[in-house]
Amino acid sequence: MPLFIGRRPLPARTAYLWWEGSWSLLQTVAFTLTLLYQVQVVHLNPAQLLLVGAVMEAACFLFEIPTSIVADVYSRRLSALIGAVVVGAGILLQGIFPSFWPIMLAQVIWGLGFTFISGAVDAWITDEIGADAVQPLFTRYQQQHLALTFIGILIAGALAQVDLRLPMLVAGAGYLMLAIVMAPLMPETRFERTASSDRPTWALMKDTFRVGLHAARRPGVVRSLTIVALIAGASSEVFDRLWTIHIFDAFHLPATGALHSTTTWFTLFALIGALISLAASLVANNLAADRINALHPHRLLAALTLVQAGGVIGFAIVGSLWPALIAMWIRDAASNITYPVQSAWLNRNIDSQARSTTISITSQADALGQVVGGPTLGALANRTSVSTAITVAGLLLTPVAMIYTRIRPSRPTATETQP
């Protein structure tokens, strides 16, 4: 601890990349093989897998607004640091106790921690460097994220050869260390903290929530992206929770000699997917930089959504392992290109006063979609098959493309007013 006392804050851009890079690495170590752990060690069935996901998303839904208001009223930097500690505790709990009910409790703790992070980090860096400067930084982060994902997968795979719980234990401890290291290094110079005489009043929190809710309900970019989050959440929950068990059910994985064969194969799948996503992001930024950095990228996002839908459906219906995996990797690559573009577009259309709360409302919509969509399509999987449920999840994405194409700017931009 004395090593970090008195350290000066880093430049905001550097601190953001350090924070997000560390988060990406730890998240990859923790979650690359979590589903494999839940299936092979804890022996969860498809219904339990989706129930675990629904509980996590319900926690996100319930805690999202209160924790985002804390970020908007007290400190976005503090909210992020608290989130890292709570997330680390949830991951440690899941790794220490390999049974159904501790894992359920771990999802609640993890969901609480995530809501402290959700919206706070994006709102913090947007305030620090300005809304017009975040798109290139978000894109750079996404490429860094993909590169560190590759490293994290290797670490997770190596640790899992010893014990499938070990990646979670290492990552959980890493999140606690991240909060300690970054506490003196993250600047917060542009955030106007509410005066002590005015906080913490319910009226103030209610006013902050109303500003965010008004932005989400007003016709325009924010409302449309909130609807997109609701639908996409319902689709993604099913795919993200069931793709592992679909591979077990539908395909045969060859033995890999002395290594733990299943762990080795799933590590390899993750590595190839990360490389494809990184290459796709680099190519897209070189060949279509003007569209990625556009102030109103609705057509690009619509096209990427259709690619994701096709990838999900292809994964579900293709009868051979490698073509199915290619479809999944294409879906993941399109999703990774989409995230920074949509995030920057959303931030450009939000007032700073309630930026974190407004972002959290869209996250809450995503959580609600997952809470509703997961169990519903889980029931469909039990009555029919896992592949049928994943196919329906892919079809759910197609209306999102139409929503993107119909979004109009909330206000005229310089680019759009030029002849």
TrEMBL record:
Alphabetically ordered keywords of this record: Membrane, Transmembrane, Transmembrane helix
Residue intervals passing through the bilayer: 16-37, 49-71, 78-97, 103-125, 146-162, 168-186, 265-288, 300-330, 385-404
GO CC term (a single one): plasma membrane
A molecular-function term among this protein's GO annotations: transmembrane transporter activity
Domain of life, per lineage: Bacteria
Membrane-protein topology: Multi-pass membrane protein
CDD domains, A to Z: MFS
Entry keyword Zinc: no
Localization in the cell: Cell membrane
Main subcellular location of this protein, as a coarse class: membrane
Major facilitator superfamily (MFS) profile domain residues: 1-411
Identification of the protein by name: DHA3 family tetracycline resistance protein-like MFS transporter
Organism per entry: Rudaeicoccus suwonensis
